[in-house]
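dumping this here before i forget
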Amino acid sequence: MRTSLFLLFCAFAASAADNQLTPEEKKAGWHLLFDGASLKGWIDPAKQIIPGNAWAIDHGSLKTVPKPTVREDLLTAETYADFELTFDWKVAPGGNTGVKYRIQDTIFIDETRHSNKKFEEMVGREYSSHPSDRKTLKPGSPNQVYVVGYEMQLIDNERHPDAKRDQRHTTGALYSMIAPQRTDAAKPAGEWNTGRIVAKGQHFEHWINGIKVLEGNLDDPAVAAGAAKRWGPAPKVQELLSHPKPVGRLSLQHHEDEAWFKNIKVRKLPAAGR
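structure:
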């Protein structure tokens, strides 16, 4: 009985530690980005023109809501230059999500205004001439807010077709630009993983469950080549990703699939070169 009570206490203590900073983390300069109960520190979709409902708080985690009125990422209120970010994440079987950083811009797209156009063409047209307006969106119209930035891909490697397409779309990749050096670090879909992103100057690192799966530089020719290959129909977007501003928001991606995030912590790092 005593052993059972001890194990129960340990389970409770582990649960209670979610979405909190330890004294050591506070001393090291970490800040909590999610308190487990509110959207403090984030741009709340529900407070936008045409309130959105793409995100919910679910048992101490941030969760994507399928088929929202406006499909949009959850963006931080603050911007970051050099930083270290840690977070726990999981996706439903067959799911797809990601964490974006060094975000350059956001683009609202009312898809009813872009008949028979590929996605990249829609984004390019919106960035050039802004035909869509969230204020005038008709109820039920398919739409989204696209976030232009660099993405650490988080996906069900075993089931999602994007992951099977090529390794630049597997968990840990710099999405559509650089494949991870390890593809076996993530746990199966439905289980919690820990992610970590370090960005310092042009240098970045992607970590999954304590394993560095990718290390590289945002000025690598492969990044420019990836941007050119995907964003040729949207040259202004290609330019943003080829010559980025060194500071931007962070975001949790809504990719229509169910995904969860918790224990999101960030600390700013001294500027590269200091």
